[in-house]
Amino acid sequence: MISDIDTRPVGRQARANSAPVPYFKRDVADRVLDFDEAVLGYDAETAMAEAARCVQCPEPQCCVLNCPANNNIPEAVWLISQGKFIEAAQVFAATNPLSEICGRVCPNLCQQGCVLSQRYGAAAIGKLEWFVADVARQAGALKIEVPAVKSGKKAAVVGSGPAGITVAEDLIKLGHTVDVYEAWPEAGGVLIYGIPGFKLEKHVVRNKIRDLEAAGVTFITDTRIGSEIAVDDLVREYDAVFLGTGAGVEATMDIPGNDLQGIYTATDFLVRANVPLEMLPPEKQMRPVVGKRVAIIGGGDTAVDCARTAIRLDAEEVTIVYRRTEAEMPGNPVERKIALEEWVNIEYLQAPVEFIGDEQGHLKEMKVVKMTLGEPDRSGRRRPVPMEGSEFIMEVDTAVMAVGYWPDPFLGEKTPDLKTHKWGLLLADETIGATSREGVFAAGDNVHGPDLVITAVATAHKAAQSMHAYLSGALIAWPSPN
Ligand SMILES: Cc1cc2nc3c(=O)[nH]c(=O)nc-3n(C[C@H](O)[C@H](O)[C@H](O)COP(=O)(O)OP(=O)(O)OC[C@H]3O[C@@H](n4cnc5c(N)ncnc54)[C@H](O)[C@@H]3O)c2cc1C
Q1: For residues 361 and 371, what is the distance between their CA atoms, to the nearest angstrom?
Q2: pLDDT of res. 12
Q3: What pLDDT is stored for residue 331 in this prediction?
Q4: What separation in Å is there between the alpha carbon of 110 and the centre of ligand 1?
Q5: Of the residues 138, 170, 186, which one is the last residue of a structural domain?
Q6: At what angle do helices 202-214 and 162-173 cross, to 10 degrees?
Q7: I need a surface site. Which of 74, 87, 186, 278 has the fewest CB within 10 A?
Q8: Of 109, 138, 167, which residue sits at a domain end?
Q9: Are residues 199 and 89 part of one domain?
Q10: Is the pLDDT of residue 8 over 60?
């Protein structure tokens, strides 16, 4: 609980020297018992106090430049400091259709440039966005306005994650008809079938899908484009097609024993643990049984999500095994800190080299090798190098491989002239989203690789603008991506 909220200082100097206002979190012992949101964020009083710390930098403001969607953060934060929460939410919503979601899960690239971070800590922009978006939701102020007269043009959107949602919203607002095709039984992409409820409760995503439906968007779920319906069929039926199919194919580890029972890939583990069973395909409608000791292999946000999930499945000892050091870890440090609070252990500079099973073919141990860091690799991070003779045995009942994702090559293989390149990424012009097929656009993780919700939103906005130009006849020559 927060106590002693002081009256915020009014001068710029004084504000720059004030400490961040703490936000509300559930007690650890309480929150690990369920999959509800662990962080609760701000209330009206604390949000206004935190917003008042912003010194309203002159342009160009680092927060705006650092936000991939270029949210007008100074204006929104100023409105919050004045208690104008709904107006602030509308400023965020003007550039970010997923304000309620990004407020909860974004690693807040915007905060990295905040001048306040040099002293006591950046203004908590993400938590402020979250608070006002929820206020606006409760007030019914997030309705998507659509023009009375339709354009007469129809667009198909494939994939209902952040990229697909953004394009659907942008196009419906411009008067076009939009149908969204989704392979999973429910719309939402990774927001539903990936990010666990303790970071983002499902009802938040469902509210957004309902807003889009109310605005006239049709969602066709349980439908994987490329099999019964081909991209070519959509090209014939619609005036433009958007591919927002994400990067949902999971990397596995090519080491002995990787097919033993008790070894999961990250998404399989997360969806079976987190998602209500009725929202899963029949073959996944079974909760994972984790036993006492769980090892999560990997170092990104997905690994942290898996570890916190295993804690909620009642594992006694959960260890993230990562082959580099904390300095090279790709995930959000705030999420990592929350995981450590929830009794997750992290072992750095280690990697499994073999999974070992019992007579029933169930995992019982991992052979692990210690690592040291060598020269930087192509990613710029120092390469992990195994230390000879350092192998040891770790007893485990369950292992989860959270070692990366790439896009499904399926659409590229099934669609003539739709070009893909490294790791199956769709080849698309990143400024306008044009693929190698005329009338077919793409953005999000399937174009730039696995990244963040806000980067999918930002790239999808650009694709939607170009689709509008194309649908309106303003994009005359089709630009060929190289
Ligand atoms: C476990 C996990 C945790 C994450 N945590 C965070 C976080 O905390 N913060 C953050 O900013 N980012 C996070 N991310 C990353 C973020 O979720 C993604 O970058 C983002 O969802 C990408 O959006 P997208 O629309 O491109 O793809 P997705 O969200 O992957 O959506 C693509 C959709 O397309 C559908 N699809 C694919 N192929 C077809 C087809 N042929 N036909 C029909 N539908 C199809 C898929 O089923 C999916 O629903 C996380 C990712 C994972 C996996």
Answers
A1: 28
A2: 66
A3: 84
A4: 21
A5: 138
A6: 30
A7: 278
A8: 138
A9: no
A10: no
